Amino acid sequence: MFLLSAVFTVLFCVSYFVFAIGDDPTMVLGLGASNVALGFCLGMALLLIGVGAIQWARKLMGDEEIVEMRHPARSSDEDREEAVASLTEGVEQSGIGRRPLIRNTLLLSTGLLGVPAIIALRDLGPLPGDKLYHTVWRKWMRVVQDVTGTPIKPEDLQVGQLVNAQPDVFYRPFNPKDSDGDDLTAAQAEARGEEPLEVPEGVELQQEKAKAATIVVRMEPSDITPSKGREDWGIDGILAYSKICTHVGCPISLWEQQTHHLLCPCHQSTFDLADNGKVIFGPANRALPQLPLMVDPDGYLVAQSDYTEPVGPSFWERG
């Protein structure tokens, strides 16, 4: 086998010079002869060396186990006592225990060296402020399908269905009604906070859409157990949750219809969407934020408000 390997190595070198390449290459069975020959010869040369070495080890080498006892990893008591004595002597000779001024100023100077590193972190960019606590979702903002941008009506969803959705940031909602049933003016609606914010553009728009990614699911209303204050956050069994896992922010949409469980593909965190997005398995330790839903006069799903808690993974500023 070793001799055959040597032969194939020689054939590799010969093939490199024999077969033409370029504009008029030598062809074999519709393939470039040079590539086929080079690949085959080199592969066989390596394979024969490996197979030969295995056969040598199995059939010719001795199969006798050799054991060598390891010495104890622990030092002897004498060595340990000597090391402690040397350390104690060094501390006494340094005078660090008898000269607190030197000791304390040394600790102060070395401790302050971490401050420049912290200050330099400011150059990573502007602080996020309260951006981590809010998304682009606003009251009366329509829920649309993620890919097509089509507004969603309750009757469009079947029981057990999951839809990836996003906010329609370009939709200007109708004038909501006042207490007498009359249309509000634009100024009145804006004063009540019922107009979307100014639409971002470019990269900022994509960032806002990514942060506001949402899933919409429909279940049997009798299967849902809303927590206090969330009784009117769904429409006939239709609920909306953040698509961003609360562990490290992976997008999730692996939906088990029968159990109402949503699984994260990254680290298998599992959330029960019939029970307020509660974590039932995995490393995530917070429930998925839920988006309150309602229906506008045209029959489309819209948001009651923004998410009531920050979406995405934990961050150190959170209480």
UniProtKB/TrEMBL annotation:
The keyword Membrane applies. Pfam families: QcrA_N, Rieske. Signal peptide: none annotated. CDD domains: Rieske (cd03467). It comes from the Bacteria. Its cofactor is [2Fe-2S] cluster. This is Cytochrome bc1 complex Rieske iron-sulfur subunit. PROSITE patterns: RIESKE (PS51296). GO terms for molecular function: 2 iron, 2 sulfur cluster binding; metal ion binding; monooxygenase activity; oxidoreductase activity, acting on paired donors, with incorporation or reduction of molecular oxygen. The chain crosses the membrane at residues 36-57. The keyword RNA-binding does not apply. It is found in: Cell membrane. Iron-sulfur subunit of the cytochrome bc1 complex, an essential component of the respiratory electron transport chain required for ATP synthesis. The bc1 complex catalyzes the oxidation of menaquinol and the reduction of cytochrome c in the respiratory chain. The bc1 complex operates through a Q-cycle mechanism that couples electron transfer to generation of the proton gradient that drives ATP synthesis. It is a multi-pass membrane protein. GO terms for cellular component: plasma membrane. Belongs to the Rieske iron-sulfur protein family. InterPro entries: QcrA_N (IPR045603), Rieske_2Fe-2S (IPR017941), Rieske_2Fe-2S_sf (IPR036922), Rieske_Fe-S_prot (IPR014349), Rieske_Fe-S_prot_C (IPR005805). Residues 233-302 form the Rieske domain. Its main location: membrane.
